[in-house]
């Protein structure tokens, strides 16, 4: 396996992912320049979406893209599990930010009739993994979905929404393109993702350069995610978290893999260069603080899974407040009450 | 049928009807001669490359601008 030693001098930016959370005020302060004038000035503009597209295209063009697919494969299979948990068929489904089709390969044509695969990187779409489901590829930006209202029975998204500038809007658009009673199943990186790397870089940079700049962007908090889904119109929400720990030989291998996944930093306010000295110090800090017994270093990926439904009148709803006919105090006597109730009907 | 859309080289097939303009959410007209999806109202054309519609707003072509430029060139 060829690992070019000079790679980090060429693009020495760390990584990772960040999701717009709810504290908008602070983010507007931290977000840097917004050179693209097309979006309204009030729109958050933290991430360079063009750069993200280039990074993903670059990653998909690598001779061995499968080498870096382990995380997306794993999360893709877990999303597929959640799709199978719902006992129905989905004639029309969409994978938003599909990459090379990590979810589609785990689903079958009995469950999904037709699968739309949308991503911002054309190389990933052209290189997609095999699936038995009929698929249609569309190049699309998660922030500007090109689909008609009430189109899909199912929308899935795996590890892609953390690079979206305006997450509330993206979720609203997902809600818009779902049919009533349609379901959205998504996975996103959570706040503790790569905390080891974040911590090591901060310590090393503070020590060597007298201050630090963000290299790992902030992620959404899990309770914010619930609020965001609710605000976008979803109901019957399910949000849960999961952690995947991966062991690497060292910090540099971790960073190389992140780049291979197309998960390099694309914040506008990223630092163009990390000094080699700082990088070496960070690798040493990482090893010192988090090393496993066998000498490898762990990296934690925290994943949030979310499920939200678009409203339909057939869905179960809580009864109206005050509409109960039996007191909770009589719960112990429920067996006596039930037959009576049936008789009276 | 549909799989052919994703098949590079085949450009003749019409893209799905529920693709809309990502900006205005209005329906698009398929222009077979240029292999583009066109939003008449806003004057935006989305290209279809290797059978994959490119619906990213930054990649779209402004049809009116180019017409104006042509007019200027003709003068």
From TrEMBL, chain A:
Subcellular location: Mitochondrion
Gene Ontology biological-process entries: methylation; mitochondrial respiratory chain complex I assembly
GO CC term, one of those recorded: matrix side of mitochondrial inner membrane
UniProt KW keywords: Methyltransferase, Mitochondrion, Oxidoreductase, Transferase, Transit peptide
Domain Methyltransferase type: 94-185
InterPro entries recorded: Malonyl-ACP_OMT, Methyltransf_11, SAM-dependent_MTases_sf
GO molecular function: oxidoreductase activity; S-adenosylmethionine-dependent methyltransferase activity
TM region(s), chain numbering: none
Principal place of residence: mitochondrion
Source taxon at top rank: Eukaryota
Family, as annotated: Belongs to the methyltransferase superfamily.
Quaternary structure note: Interacts with NDUFAF8, leading to stabilize NDUFAF5. Interacts with NDUFS7. Interacts with PYURF (via TRM112 domain); the interaction is direct and stabilizes NDUFAF5 protein.
Function: Arginine hydroxylase that mediates hydroxylation of 'Arg-111' of NDUFS7 and is involved in the assembly of mitochondrial NADH:ubiquinone oxidoreductase complex (complex I, MT-ND1) at early stages. May also have methyltransferase activity.
UniProt-listed PANTHER family: ARGININE-HYDROXYLASE NDUFAF5, MITOCHONDRIAL
The protein's name in its UniProt record: Arginine-hydroxylase NDUFAF5, mitochondrial
Organism: Nomascus leucogenys (Northern white-cheeked gibbon)
Higher taxonomy: Eukaryota, Metazoa, Chordata, Craniata, Vertebrata
GN (gene name): NDUFAF5
Automatic annotation (TrEMBL), chain B:
Superkingdom assignment: Eukaryota
InterPro entries xrefs: Trm112-like
Subcellular location: Mitochondrion
One Gene Ontology cellular component: mitochondrion
Keyword Membrane: no
Parts of the chain that traverse the membrane: none
Keywords: Mitochondrion, Transit peptide
Chief localisation class: mitochondrion
SUPFAM superfamilies: Trm112p-like (SSF158997)
Self-association state and partner proteins as the record states: Interacts (via TRM112 domain) with NDUFAF5; the interaction is direct and stabilizes NDUFAF5 protein. Interacts with COQ5; the interaction is direct, stabilizes COQ5 protein and associates PYURF with COQ enzyme complex.
Functional summary from the UniProt entry: In mitochondria, S-adenosylmethionine-dependent methyltransferase chaperone that supports both coenzyme Q biosynthesis, by stabilizing its components, such as COQ5, and NADH:ubiquinone oxidoreductase complex (complex I, MT-ND1) assembly, by stabilizing complex I assembly factors, such as NDUFAF5.
Similarity remark: Belongs to the PREY family.
Protein name as it appears in the record: Protein preY, mitochondrial
Gene source species: Nomascus leucogenys
Encoding gene per record: PYURF
